[in-house]
Design a protein that fits this description.
By secondary structure, the protein is of the alpha+beta class. The chain is built from four helices and 14 strands. The chain has a single domain, classed as tt1808, chain A. Strand 10 and strand 11 form a beta hairpin. The longest helix has 18 residues. The N terminus is likely disordered.
Length: 186
Amino acid sequence: MEVAKPTGNHYTYADYCTWPEDERWEIIEGVPYAHATPSRIHQTVSKKIFRQLDVFLDGKPCEVFYAPFSVRLNADSGDNTVVEPDLFVVCDESKLKDGKSVAGPPDFLIEILSPATSKRDKVEKLRIYRETGVREYWIVDPSDRTVLACVFEADSKSVKAYDDEDAAPVHVLDGCVIDLAAVFVE
């Protein structure tokens, strides 16, 4: 269950760093939200996508990461939005300089839906990811066995839906295709 931290205060990454390490939190525009432990299906889907991305990126300048790892979307202006996407790819090594977080938007980001996070992932994070410079965002729904791929270019957004029989291209990683049949196996 996703719960807001009940204080009414406005938080930043500096506050986030003082919270207990055994708790998972995100801060969206200053408001903190706790995360529940992911389900087995969530973890299985994440693992299968990660494997395909990791194999594709081997020897390339980009790197794939998985939660929990902090992404400071607006590290250079306010530092009040810290997320822990399920999976993400960073191609600019300078964003990884502190070794504890990503300072700036990743190139490619994936959120795997759960009942507690579905609305936030589909609406609020979609908006924030686009506004902060994420180039491609996938919303993966394990229960429907679908992927909604959003590609953000300049002032436009293209959205394409894929299902469990598709091979979905990652537009920001030239030549990368995720075999969704291998992701959504029974």
